[in-house]
Design brief:
By secondary structure, the protein is an all-alpha fold. 75% of the residues lie in helices and 0% in strands. The two termini are 18 Å apart.
């Protein structure tokens, strides 16, 4: 599916979800504050429901939202490790068995080597962030479609699915989605006084737009 079609269909879906449906819009605004409910609603959107689902079954929404948050945290763990790794390497002292008696233990890496290690880890972090970002996005949709958390961690299946769509195409599509939302929010922010308020009011629309967008991207190739 082309990027223009992804944007157009996702925009239409989000508009139909809230425009003229003021009660749903208000409930979605409340759900953005009580965020597990909003995450649960995105699960329903990513399940492929069309048109946008009503907000009902609040217990189910909350449970699905918590499950999605857990999946997000698990996928974020490798990035958390890469974030703290340079600091850990720098502050771990050399074993006292190789340090002269009475001297102060030195860091495992010298400042120069620590900088080089940090740069290497940073490069790995960027590559890992892109890979995990794409992988986790498809994992969220797969969980939403199946209702089973374990399906979000079928890495080989997810990799094959992404491969059918194309890693570069998936990356570009997700990047474009982020840029579109960022531009819309920037334009709203330029409106004097009302900018922050409008951004908050349109937050449900941005969330629904992105959830539908990644769903269409996921559906652009058959899933195993």
């Amino acid at each position: 599916m082309g990027l223009v079609q992804l944007i157009s269909e996702s925009f239409g879906y989000a508009k139909d979800a809230i425009w003229g449906r003021w009660v749903r819009w208000l409930l979605l605004l409340v759900s953005t504050i009580l965020f597990p409910f909003m995450y649960g609603y995105t699960v329903r959107v990513m399940s492929g429901t069309k048109p946008a689902p009503e907000l009902k079954g609040w217990i189910g929404l909350f449970i699905d939202g918590i499950k999605l948050i857990v999946i997000m945290v698990i996928y974020a763990i490798p990035l958390m490790i890469l974030t703290i790794l340079p600091f850990v390497l720098y502050f771990i002292p050399v074993s006292s068995t190789i340090t002269p008696a009475g001297s102060v233990p030195e860091p495992l890496l010298s400042p120069a080597l620590a900088i080089l290690a940090a740069l290497a880890v940073f490069a790995i972090f960027i590559l890992a962030a892109i890979t995990i970002g794409i992988l986790s996005t498809f994992a969220f949709v797969r969980f939403s479609r199946t209702g089973k958390m374990r399906e979000a961690f079928r890495i080989k299946t997810l990799i094959r699915h992404i491969g059918r769509i194309g890693w570069i195409h998936s990356f570009v599509a997700l990047l474009v989605m982020g840029i579109v939302i960022a531009i819309a929010q920037f334009i709203l922010a330029l409106i004097p006084l009302l900018g922050p308020v409008l951004i908050f009011l349109f937050t449900p629309a941005f969330i629904i737009f992105s959830a539908r967008y990644v769903t269409l991207l996921y559906e652009s190739a058959p899933a195993a």
